């Protein structure tokens, strides 16, 4: 099944006994929240290509940004914790670990199930992935469309799935978070000048990099493009100002943060959060700070 924003493969159990679904959404605005659900005897692997998304697993929140993966282990209750599915691109793969799937291809052992059990054994839920993960998942979509039930197609898809799982294990093995010092300077500059026009060329100069290399570095380190990050930051600051000053108007906030009009500010806020500023202004709690920017406070 597919539409303009979502595509889902429901694998045939006759050909892929352990593979359940591969999905992808590509939203250009915030959508409704993901309700809590559970996968018995199944593991769900999510890879976020761009943007950010909040997940809630067993009552604990995880912020997943572009280039990161999150695993939902068998039997865990998970969803988006009431937050909308955010603007961005997400892939998810569900694999069945039940006894029937585990015994398929028993003469050689089921390597896909084995690798999934290794992921469970490592017990690392949230970590940085690689660009190759997206490429592999897109290739699975392509092969399935052309030759889902062809013997060579089945072999290719199973091989690609194993490559994807091995990549996840490799990323867990080298899990670390090193923030480039040059980027720290850039983020401080953005914070300080968020109410004024900010150009990519100025940010790149701060890092002594070309614009193309700077954009790549920025996305690798933050999960966002520079423009998307700046927009989210402005939205967060604008909503915070509205909440802190009940008498201030949307028009004043729009022009203070360099939006061309209050109507444009309202449309952008709704695009990222699913709600207009007038509602977020009166909303209690931290919903707007978390959702609008896509970073933990």
Automatic annotation (TrEMBL):
InterPro entries, per the entry: AraC-bd (IPR003313), Homeodomain-like_sf (IPR009057), HTH-like (IPR037923), HTH_AraC (IPR018060), HTH_AraC-typ_CS (IPR018062), RmlC-like_jellyroll (IPR014710)
Domain HTH araC/xylS-type: residue ranges: 184-283
PROSITE patterns linked to this entry: HTH_ARAC_FAMILY_1 (PS00041), HTH_ARAC_FAMILY_2 (PS01124)
Keyword annotations from UniProtKB, A to Z: DNA-binding, Transcription, Transcription regulation
PANTHER family: ARAC-FAMILY TRANSCRIPTIONAL REGULATOR, HTH-TYPE TRANSCRIPTIONAL ACTIVATOR RHAS
SUPFAM superfamilies registered for this protein in UniProt: Homeodomain-like (SSF46689), Regulatory protein AraC (SSF51215)
Presence of keyword RNA-binding: no
A GO MF label: DNA-binding transcription factor activity
Protein name: AraC-type DNA-binding protein
Superkingdom of this protein's organism: Bacteria
């Amino acid at each position: 099944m597919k539409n303009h924003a979502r595509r889902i493969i429901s694998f045939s159990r006759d050909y892929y006994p352990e593979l359940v679904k591969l999905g992808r959404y590509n939203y250009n605005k915030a959508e409704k929240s993901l309700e809590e659900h559970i996968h018995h005897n199944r593991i769900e692997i999510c890879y976020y290509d761009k943007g950010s998304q909040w997940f809630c697993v067993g009552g604990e929140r995880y912020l997943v940004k572009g280039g990161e993966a999150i695993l939902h282990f068998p039997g865990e209750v998970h969803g988006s914790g009431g937050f909308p599915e955010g603007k961005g691109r997400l892939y998810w793969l569900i694999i069945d670990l039940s006894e029937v799937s585990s015994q398929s291809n028993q003469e050689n052992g089921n390597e896909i199930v084995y690798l999934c059990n290794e992921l469970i054994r490592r017990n690392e839920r949230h970590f940085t992935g690689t660009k190759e993960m997206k490429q592999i998942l897109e290739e699975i979509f392509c092969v399935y469309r052309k030759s889902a039930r062809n013997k060579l197609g089945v072999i290719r898809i199973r091989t690609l799935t194993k490559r994807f799982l091995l990549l996840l294990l490799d990323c867990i093995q080298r899990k670390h978070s090193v923030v480039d010092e040059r980027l720290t300077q850039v983020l401080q500059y953005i914070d300080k000048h968020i109410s004024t026009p900010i150009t990519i060329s100025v940010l790149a100069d701060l890092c002594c990099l070309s614009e193309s290399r700077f954009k790549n570095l920025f996305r690798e380190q933050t999960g966002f493009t520079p423009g998307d990050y700046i927009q989210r930051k402005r939205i967060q600051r604008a909503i915070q100002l509205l909440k802190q000053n009940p008498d201030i108007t949307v028009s004043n906030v729009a022009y203070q943060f360099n939006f061309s009009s209050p109507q444009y500010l309202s449309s952008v806020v709704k695009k990222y959060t699913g709600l207009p500023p007038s509602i977020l202004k009166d909303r209690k709690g931290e919903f707007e700070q978390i959702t609008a920017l896509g970073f933990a406070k």
